[in-house]
Amino acid sequence: MQKVHLVVHHQEKDSEACTQRLHGLKRPLLTLLIGCALFALPMNVLAGNSMEDVFKHLRMTEDQKKDFLQHKVITFSDEKVSDRDIPVGMVGLFEGSAEEAIQIFREAQQFKAVSIMKGFGKIDGAGTPGDFSGAVLTPNGPKEADRYLIAEPGADLNLSPKEITAFQDLNKSLKDSDNRQKKVEELLHKTLLARYQAYRAGGVSSIAPFDRGDGDLFQPGAELEKTMQGSDWLKTRFPTFYKFLLNYPSEKLSGVDDQFFWVNFDVLGRPNFALTHRTSFQDGDKYVFFERHFYTSHDYNTLEQMGVVLPSDEGTVVAFLYRISTDQVAGFGSTVKGAAARKLIEGPLEEVFAEQRKKK
Fold first, then answer.
1. Using one digit for the tens of pLDDT, what is the confidence trace for 89-109?
2. pLDDT band at 17 (very low <50, low <70, confident <90, very high)
3. In this structure, are 108 and 135 located in the same domain?
4. Is residue 105 located within the same domain as residue 246?
């Protein structure tokens, strides 16, 4: 059976104020890491199949090398692609096969097993409003419904100018006898469906912006494109898969497994809806995975996960990194805030591996 231990090597010291300010990131990220646990690594870490390749590209110390070969999991970071970007990941050496390592993490993909997941559903083909029938405003539905009805530009909700107007118009049309929450959910389903269909038709360039106010339109598609273009390892190691992802949906690639979901998870007592694109590709004895959150309703802008499971002479290397874009780490002091956010992400990652150890 595989033995997995965790060693955290970051030495960053964060102020208590920054940690408290970013504490709200921990729970949603824990949900993402457990409920959507794919693997990610946007650097050229696994250029070959030798341990020296891993050691070189992760810049491991001698102590870290020893820990890694003893099947301890090493945390690492990467260069940021924007001032909103939080990159953090882990790499571990498993005693079992690549197939066994993959199965460990696939067990964590069962949305039903995550207590703060309030709902999820698969979206097939062109999609219909019925695909989102289970997307209800929970927890605290009435309060969140009112939030949508008085929507305005800002960071409270990730909405385009057109979407904001639609919810405002709904508010004006409601009668006292109407079920306000149900009416909001019906419009929310149409909003999610429209965003899904736009992405399926045109990829990241078709993602509607978020209106932050004062003429500031945040472009999530441009943020996702930056993340992809910064994935040098993917360009060189899996060039056809990289081209498929970069040019989705116009680029075709046989053997790719595409799946789409909506997910609702509890973020500090608020429902947060994410539209996710999952895909994977096998190249011989190597596996590469990818997941993209191309829409989220609040708290963060986008998320991409990319990674590999790779057999080596010493065992199976599993490497992954999560890149999350959030306005909470942008602007003045972002270096300090980013360090605090990474600390909050690493905690949930430890919990993921701890849960897997319990099963062995």
1. 777 777 777 777 666 555 545
2. very low
3. no
4. yes
